[in-house]
């Protein structure tokens, strides 16, 4: 029952620690976590597979891996929409896993997610895993549990203290894997952290064993977040460790500089007035040269992208039953097609938008949505009789 610890990383403006442990009672660990540096920003995610349902471990792993794939491959200008669509994608993947393995039908998991972009932290959750925010000695829980007892608290029928020991405490009202798919709770506005602020993502295996006052006291004290994380894990196990325990701590630093865009003045690098004009002039020249270079570079990149937007797929005319039907499927005329003969064989080359390699977590519905092409057309273009995709295969986007 050794604690698994990921190596901490020093990044531009934050430092993090990730820990997970099966606890003192459970035979296996159905929690799963991840950190990913993606095209959409830095993604942290913690999942707790529902142990009373089948394949809890597979559910949590499927969601984490699906979120990693989505955020790494599909860029969004709007972080809120990115989070929403990422959760939808993960739930689609869970459904596909259930269809492929009937033993996993009904699997479910909780999720908490933090997306850091441009020094702002967006967050979302489903279930009863939690996110806490520690700032200037203030300790705030950002998430509200999707549970039966939380509803009783909201209705005023029981207090927060009574909820901690309620016999139906572990009954969840919303989880990833529900039918129909449940929408995630997404923050209305992102957190704008200050230097030294902390975020704590965790499963109920931590907060059920360590009271919030003790969580706060541990985060508030001086020291490294590695030590704080290990102490929280140790406390949860010493208090019983009845469930799997997983946590991530993110510490922000140098964010004041990142917000203002100004570095603190260092007297060792002060500039004498007599040289200031020359330096300013040189800076202007360098700046203008940089702009000219950037414009030329962007123009060349756009030209490259234009050529990459259209690729071609070849059909063997000698084995093709009906050329006209292929042209009709792709919406092309005969003059749009290139013909060539290679080693006595005849080929027809058709321009298409893109050819992708099918990944393990792709499915026909998400590809249809992402590329704006109907499922029926994707099936026809790729000559698929069913909707099952094979990882590693080339797939045509018309």
Task: Sum this structure up briefly.
By secondary structure, the protein is an alpha+beta fold. 36% of the residues lie in helices and 24% in strands.
Q: How would you describe this structure to a colleague?
A:
By secondary structure, the protein is α+β, with helices and mostly antiparallel strands. The chain folds into two domains: 4-259, PPM-type phosphatase domain (Phosphatase 2c, domain 1, 4-Layer Sandwich), CATH 3.60.40; 310-397, Membrane-bound Lytic Murein Transglycosylase D, Chain A. Helix content is 36%, strand content 24%. It contains twelve helices and 16 strands. The strands form four sheets. Strands 1-2-11-10-7-8 form a six-stranded antiparallel β-sheet. It is globular and about 80 Å long.
Summarize the helices and strands and which ones pair or pack:
Elements: E1 4-5, E2 14-21, E3 31-38, E4 41-49, H1 56-73, H2 79-100, E5 109-117, E6 120-126, E7 130-135, E8 138-141, H3 148-154, H4 160-164, E9 185-186, E10 198-202, H5 204-207, H6 212-220, H7 225-238, E11 245-252, H8 255-260, H9 273-309, E12 311-316, H10 323-330, E13 338-342, E14 345-352, E15 354-357, H11 364-371, H12 375-381, E16 394-397
Antiparallel strand pairs: 1-2, 2-11, 3-4, 4-5, 5-6, 6-9, 7-8, 7-10, 10-11, 12-14, 13-14, 15-16
Helix pairs in contact: 1-2
